[in-house]
């Protein structure tokens, strides 16, 4: 195989991508499971104008691979050229075949005689073509449908199996009922061989059973065959047949087709025909199939598309004998004409039953809301309803029987809808196939005729699939009506399910409005209601629906009209402010020192309000405040600002005006209104813990001096209709006894203050009230204001400057130690090489891995995003390069220290070759230090495994840093963080060495070990002073330090510096007093804490050491040559 011919090491480093189906490349499949680099399941090739593009992955792993480096550049180039060329042939070869199959298919009509035989009954009732009938030329567009319904009576011969074991496993999450969907397309029309009554056509049908899928692809398959996956079965069928126009049913259009496909084979056992599906491991990729070309499909399309004449009906049956294993029971198909067909408005008689006299006086009409009456009604209606669901309002005013109040309007309520008990939680409504016919009547009054289909969607049904369905059932209402600009009301008659010619099921009235005034109780961009035409014998309580407004969408809807917001809860919000902001000294300091989002002095009022609205908007994740565990599920918070002051939505400039050019602070009308700003917002929380907070409408005051919003909330309650009706204090069906306080982080001192927002939601109800809820307090992840996204001085820059300062201090300390040993030659051998090695390791890691030096905490996700555009700034790169240069200098100077210590010991050995015990050795120090740190690491690992017992220790952690992706086990993450701890305790080996060697000298300069200690502890002090980024769900944002662990937690930021300072003091005392004095001092009665001194490490005369360090002092040429050889 071609993939096996490619060298393994080259195969690890490269992968090929393409945009077409991966199944077209059966020869290419990665065979190296041990490769550490991520590969696609199947290599893909991507073609472009410049040829084929190879995508390289994991450059870091490539550079680290010694085998890859061993391959010469020319060899790599040759391999790349070979792979490029061969892949190109494969791609273009397969791609050309695919294009030929999909776009230049030659349709053969070689079964026409068989078609005429089986479709004889259809041909017998067909009428001859009329010269003026042009519909034959629009067959491909008119006679296709997507995601219709099909059903098959329960019999002994089902057409396909369905594997529902995954559904049965997840019953705790709610039962999802599978859907029987079918789509059909006319692929070709043979106009060249048209007869008097018929024309040959080719079609393609795709049917199946699915839970979350759909059948919208019309890709041609030369040999269609059955496919099955968990919770999804699919059967494509290719058809050939004729198109005719019938003399019956008003000239309906008929397709009679013969099909061919690979059907799933049934078992002989009639009790379980799909026994091969129910085995423990079903064969999804190779199900048993059998070829069948004896399938007859008859589809009947209405000749006219009207309110009562729109249904597509079909039947598909097998022409095989019932004894044949390929036989299947008859399949019924149901769909409707779509927007590609021309709708004929003309059901005025049926519409008048619901809307005469116009406008109908309902409760919404008299609700005191301003309604849109402009000329763009059709445009707005189509924009608002396109693939977007309406929310169903609970029956909170209903007071009747449980069956009556739990009913979903005119729709047939099943168990799933009845389980909502009139609250209709997660029940959605789609307005499909919206068609408008607009005209202007007398007096410049616009009149619009509208047709649509209202489809109700169950809570567990996939909304995307539901929005594309075309079948008619007891969950659909077809409607037609009229809208006039004089009232702004769209009044329609609604017909449930299948409608006959007389419109007998058309007993519902639909009133729909587009408002332009908004308030805390009215947040809908469109709202309406279903009601029964028969008031005296209504079968259901009026059902209301709405679509909530999104501030960013308003500009799309209203370009000529001016929507506005009416504040009504400002006084109540003022009471919340007084309760939550008492006058304190801390508040005064906060107002004077910190700055929060406010109106811009240099901008016009509307522009400034729009910019403030952008800063106050929150789309971020959050956790409970305080969060008890870093592994809790996060909550997605969406706080959308609806209005700020007089501005509703966002401001979009339509040209230079005086309003835009005049800064707001120059206007006397606003100078005394800058203390508090009226705001309204919309809060949405995700997660099971906040099921009763699907949406909270907010209104209140924003204080820019302290960065807080004090808001009254109206909660969209989803409870039983009985509870809602019993709660007499509801306002427009909402619980408005809610107080919300939102605290924003300051715009200044961001690198010292945690840049997170806090949200508090409190219920004013008593605990025995069924609508009461416990106080909710949330703290968001880091947020970024608009100006801070543009601000160069981000935390990363600040930390870069601090790294330069601390590294410069470290270089100064190391340099001072180098100068010190030149004047204190006798103490040089007593400097611990293990201590210097730990420091060298600390400086080398950033050079090898690219990690940050000293400040181990990598920038959080928000900072990386904000700094993305700053990477092109030259001086920003200079900071990074300067840091790398200083790290290199520190590393080299530390190596120079190691060299001097090593040479001094070599010369001591040369001076006294028979007294090895008198030369300091780091062997015992290394073993002792290693033992201490291994034990310490194991203790830390055990503590963390206990702390995070809900997560398995071997769980992989995905680390994403600077574009590279890799995985670490939990113990590896702890080990990397423990490396930082080892560097912080760099004096531990020197402390142990001083005890072992029983020194009576000063090997380290005070400036050196105190200064380096300060350098190592500064990140902890800095981390303790400034608040860390709250991002407990992205541990990958921290290369060596994770705030959920103890190393850089608040405890670690105190414990580690204290321990390091104790070590520095201990080393200072050891050097200040000799070992003998310390041994006598550290005595508790008869007990000596230190053993008595020995002469094992008694120093040689200093003159000898000095002579060995200074070339030629003792005139011993042999020794000098030996020293040079050692160097």
What structural class is derived from the secondary structure elements?
alpha+beta
Between the first and last Cα atoms, what is the distance in angstroms?
56 Å
Q: Beta-strand level of the residues, as a percent range? A: 15-25%
- Low-confidence parts lasting 5 or more residues at pLDDT below 50? 1-102, 655-662, 664-673, 855-872, 950-968, 1027-1048, 1093-1127
Shape: globular
Task: Explain the overall architecture.
It is a single chain. With 1127 residues, this protein is an alpha+beta fold. The strands form 7 sheets. An 8-stranded antiparallel beta barrel has the order 4-5-6-8-9-10-11-12. Helix 24 (833-849) crosses helix 28, helix 27 (923-947) runs antiparallel to helix 29 (988-997) and helix 30 (1006-1025) packs antiparallel against helix 31 (1050-1072). The longest helix is centred in the C-terminal third of the chain and has 38 residues, at 874-911. It starts with a helix and ends with a helix.
Concise synopsis of the structure shown:
The chain has 1127 residues and is of the alpha+beta class.
List the helices and strands and how they pair.
Layout: H1 2-5, H2 8-13, E1 14-16, E2 46-48, E3 51-56, H3 59-64, H4 66-70, H5 73-103, H6 112-118, H7 120-124, H8 139-142, E4 145-152, H9 165-169, E5 179-190, E6 199-210, E7 227-229, E8 232-245, E9 253-264, E10 289-301, E11 311-318, E12 331-336, H10 348-355, H11 377-385, E13 389-392, H12 402-405, H13 415-418, E14 428-440, E15 446-457, H14 463-468, E16 476-484, E17 490-496, E18 508-513, E19 517-518, E20 524-532, E21 543-548, H15 554-557, E22 564-565, H16 570-580, H17 585-593, H18 605-616, E23 618-624, E24 635-644, E25 647-648, H19 658-661, H20 668-671, E26 677-685, E27 696-703, E28 708-715, H21 721-726, E29 735-743, E30 756-763, E31 776-782, H22 786-790, H23 795-823, H24 833-849, H25 861-867, H26 874-911, H27 923-947, E32 956-961, E33 964-969, H28 970-984, H29 988-997, H30 1006-1025, H31 1050-1072, H32 1075-1081, E34 1083-1084, E35 1087-1088, H33 1102-1109, H34 1117-1126
Parallel strand pairs: 19-22
Antiparallel strand pairs: 1-3, 2-3, 4-5, 4-12, 5-6, 6-8, 7-8, 8-9, 9-10, 10-11, 11-12, 13-14, 13-21, 14-15, 15-16, 16-17, 17-18, 18-20, 20-21, 23-24, 23-31, 24-25, 24-26, 26-27, 27-28, 28-29, 29-30, 30-31, 32-33, 34-35
Helix pairs in contact: 23-26, 23-30, 24-26, 24-28, 26-33, 26-34, 27-28, 27-29, 29-31, 30-31
